[in-house]
Amino acid sequence: MEIQEIKSRLPLSQVLDYYHLHPDRNNRLHCPFHDDKTPSMQVYQKTNTCYCFSSNCKTHGKSLDVIDFIMHMESSSKHEAILKARAMINPADSTPVSRSPAQTESINTAILSKIFHYFRNGFLVRRNNKARVYLESRGLDIVKFQNLGLVFGYNSAQFHHRGRISPEDMQACQTAGLLVKSPQQSRFGDGYSPWASHCAIFPLTDEKGNITGMYGRSTANNPRNKHYYLKNSKGLFYYPKKDAARLIITESIIDFLSLYQIDEIRNQYDFLPIYGTNRLNQDHKTAIANLARLQEIIFFLDGDKAGEEAIKKYSGQLSKENPQAAISKVETPDNEDINSLLQGHESEIFIHLLKTRKLLLSSIEKASNEEKKVSELSNEASPSAPPSQHQKKSLDTENPHNIRYTGSVADYYIKGGLRGNLDSMKVSLQVVSHESRNDHRAKADLYEHKPVEALVKAASERLSLPAAALKKDLSILTRLLEQHRNKTLAEQHRYKRKPPKKIPQSTINQCLDILTSAHPVERINELIGRSGVVGEQTARIFLFAIASSYKMPDTLHALIQGSSGSGKTMLLKTIYDLMPGEDTTKFTRVTDSSFYNYPEHYFVQRLVCFEDIDGLKEDALYAVRELISNEILVSSTSVKTEHGEITGAEKTVRGPIASISCTTKGEIYEDNMSRVFLIAVDESPEQTKRIIQYQQQKASGMISGQQEKQSKELLQNCVRLLKPYQVVNPYAGQIQLPEEAHKIRRLNDLYLSFVRQVTLINQYKRKKDKQGRLITEKEDLQTANAIMFDSIVLKVDELDGSLRGFYEKLKRYVQEKGKGYAFSQREIRQAFRVSKTGCQNYINTLLELEYIQKTYVGHRNTFHYKISHWDSLEALRERIKTYLDDQLKTISDQNPVVAKMVGQHAEMQELTDSNHRPREI
């Protein structure tokens, strides 16, 4: 082999790899021929040479080819370097490397996992990536899917650029089909064309979670090249649960996601997305075959000719392979698919279509042929047997303690009902002959072979019935009992969300008059007052906005603080009653671990209220804090496998939730308070007078209870009409909160979240950008500042809400006596009418904070107290108000970000227009 041939066949990259040297993304590396702290050797892929720019290198001034490089590395002669180079030449160019299928599959899984990690990071880190924008434009809720554990990726077509992956991985990517070598050279060396460029990427996995393939969906509006399937891909994007009873087959992953995000459907059905009408492959069939409790397969394909033909083709195949399952189809409207229906209709259309699905073949019909043969044998053996109309292939469960099944030769009664243990089918059975009406009674476990054989033999001899027919009847009975038990257990344990209340069109119009008015927040606040909340003008609208955030992407949380009997619980109850009942939960007491035992999706997008959070123990309080902060609870628990073994398992409960809690001890929830809005109840004498006056007017009939009820129902329907949107705030960087506020980072995040919620309440009056996101306006900031002002003051103030109220009252009391006046606890208890414990807690806290000081009165042998620190709450409030108002005055639409968002790319969408006006729901 000539020297020139060696140089042409042996890439420098292979030589560097042999010596474990890997250039960086700029094709530089630490020179191996001298002590090199910074990369000084440049690799030139085009010329297959390298050059060290360091004057300390022995090769400085020389351009090294592959033979020269080997010679210096080995400190050998040129002849020895040539021999070494010959040995290093990769024979793969002419002779393929032989690998076992297991080795090839292992290499493919490793490289697919590594590259999908790039794709996933591209999807998560770049919030405005094409894949995310595309999926959201199709009406898909990305945040909800992430909470449900589904993962997506985005291929920006740059994962292989500038040495981001090693030469070995480049080769593996080619083998897997992720890269195709291009005949054209790039300035960095060989050129490559990546698979599924600028596509949303969905990983396909085996049942263990190993990535074994990928599917790419183009983000461009190109009808010719929409779907990209990686060569030799195996596995599924989603595996149905092992205990699935009703399985929906969708034509694509996008269609599956469209249904999966609807809670009511996800809680009642499981899913299997296929890859088009011609791509229901063996992996799908195996997944279906593994569903031991499957009762029905539902085809929900496109409403076109291809979809109809696919249903005919696959229903026959799956019917034979899964004889226990009924086959049905959803009548999809012509030329529509699931996702197009999602974009043009409310989710109720899917519930309607599924309820009205057409049964193609029932599981009982599938068994009819075999049972007919058994029946014919029975009739031959017993000519006087009753005709076939006696046969009834379903259970009569009207009396759950005496379940009846009519078989081919006898009636079967299950006395006492079924037990709940899934590892057995123990029954007390009565078998009554159709002909003689004689009976045979026995106890048996229908899951055990020998007891069933003994039962068949005894009943056959006693009743003179054919054993084959009895055995077949018991087999069918066992399957029907199993299905009945599974259904019963599922109904007992499955959380069923209340269906949304139907809103008449007249009520919708009333709600829209409020939501599209000049000042929706003010109109809502007036209605809250009519619903029974006296006074508390700011607190009540604040709490309403927080409560209504439960259905939005970013939920909010509040802690109502006040002394005992201050009305905080009544305030919470009233706000709770203003939210739709189907989406709310209220607790009076919570045990330590009860939160961990709820169904996984019980709390998703739900308002949760705690009448007295002081009663929660530490474990329960920690669970609440985790649901608020991380939106998920994951606990380890012990479960028994189907083989009776005890093993560990994860129990997951998901959020997000919105929450409102009441407390008399706000100071002890420091960790929680930084995550929530702190709202102090108005305990002033003026508020007390207002409440008493309202109670008297209501008792005298001057205020109608019907008016309160109507106001509550109207506000509930207003909340039902609010839709979750993403919100962009172009003014976010122009408002700064007071730096002395406690935990300013979290307070700033809470402030921005509340501005988003105010924008969402005003959604019928707000513009949208081209991505369908609501745009915050200055009016929203002004409203948020006005509502949040007291909460911001509380965050700046050293004293919490109830303590500040006590201290202000104490200052007024002392000022009337003279600033140097000394008081006793007994005197304050009687003057303020507070309990001994409450007064003592306030006094001790003020002592610790050095707001008051203790003095000893010798002649009385007791202690008195004096105020030592006279601060001014009014001055603090005025300073903060001026600080925020001055910023609001200076914010400008001339800011480039604001101008671009509001002026250039905003599109006004009048939701009150008849085309968009909500109809009766």
List keywords for this structure.
921 residues, alpha/beta, DNA Primase, Chain A, Dna Topoisomerase Vi A Subunit, Chain: A, domain 2, 32 helices, 31 strands, 17% strand
Question: How do the strands and helices of this protein lay out in sequence?
Answer:
Elements: H1 3-9, H2 12-18, E1 28-29, E2 41-44, E3 49-52, E4 63-64, H3 66-74, H4 78-88, H5 101-125, H6 130-137, H7 142-147, E5 153-155, H8 167-176, E6 179-186, E7 189-194, E8 199-205, E9 211-218, E10 227-229, E11 246-250, H9 253-260, H10 263-266, E12 270-273, H11 282-289, E13 296-300, H12 305-321, E14 326-329, H13 338-344, H14 348-355, E15 358-361, H15 363-381, E16 392-396, E17 402-406, E18 410-415, E19 426-433, E20 439-445, H16 449-463, H17 467-493, H18 505-515, H19 520-530, H20 537-547, E21 557-561, H21 568-577, E22 584-587, E23 606-610, H22 618-629, E24 632-640, E25 646-654, E26 657-663, H23 670-673, E27 677-680, H24 685-699, H25 705-721, E28 727-728, H26 744-761, E29 774-775, H27 778-796, H28 801-817, H29 825-832, H30 836-848, E30 852-857, E31 862-867, H31 873-890, H32 896-904
Helix pairs in contact: 3-4, 5-8, 15-17, 16-17, 18-25, 19-20, 19-25, 20-21, 26-27, 27-31, 29-30
